Amino acid sequence: SFFFLRWSLTLSPRLECSGMISAHCSLHFPVAGITGVFSLLTAVALARLATRTRKPSYYYLLALTASDIITQVVIVFAGFLLQGAVLARQVPQAVVRTANILEFAANHASVWIAILLTVDRYSALCHPLHHRAASSPGRTRRAIAAVLSAALLTGIPFYWWLDVWRDADPPSTMDEVLKWAHCLTVYFIPCGVFLVTNSAIIHRLRRTGQPRVGKSTAILLGVTTLFTLLWAPRVSVMLYHMYVAPVHRDWRVHLALDVANMVAMLNTAVNFGLYCFVSKTFRATVRQVIHDAYLPCTLASQPKGMAVKLVMEPSGLPKGAEV
Q1: Contact criterion met (CB below 8 Å) for 61 and 144
Q2: Which residues form a coiled coil (predicted)?
Q3: For the chain, which domains are there?
Q4: If you average pLDDT over each of 88-97, 99-108, 300-309, which comes out highest?
Q5: Of the four, 147, 220, 284, 309, which is 20 to 30 A from 96 by CA?
């Protein structure tokens, strides 16, 4: 999950002067709020499942969701709320560039953890004996830690990332290198890995004649397919902006970038729907998380005696039955 909302929230002078700022912000606040709620709910549910089952796939999905949450916090809070709503002025450039490092590092981590999940599913289906011998929660956590460390290192060069509103015309060599590095790191190379491994998984399933696809494999195929589709517009607009029409010269490119970023932002919310659709266990865990969050609020709103009675005598138990 994959957002880079700062591009969308940095308004061009044309938009600010034409009165489109209110519509612009009203489009992004609901999207940011929806994806944030779904990300937190997904993270809590996956944390429970990972602790309960100790399956590598849940650890990978949890790390992926956590990376998305970090990206959202950096972009929405540091890039918009703090700079625009709280300070109402430009923050120091060093702060913005440091936020760039965290933003790109979290984004790289999210994508490459999805690759770990893909490789894990490929190993489980195509080399089951090796997977059973090598798979363990400790090994999974070490793999995730290695990816997070590598993602932080690969985020450092993006300290020099240039906002699309300040791009040179034509773009400098550094700007082209960073943008192509970003496209390769988070889209073209991962999509190549997804294509190869998913094709091998599907071929294996057809050859063995399995009538049904496992839940973990179904989630993997759904996550990678959705990522490929939802991120394609953003990458296309970025390359178009770099070589054809800069954003500050053509408001249509700005609008296309807005739409592409919002589509990419919805990735997390769509993943939540995918998990619920595929996994009955995930649906049950989400219901339990919501119930556990709602129950204290319900008890707090009840009179003191009624709250005690609700705790001591849960509904649905026969009278006199032991709790």
Answers
A1: no
A2: none
A3: 6-278 (1.20.1070.10)
A4: 99-108
A5: 147
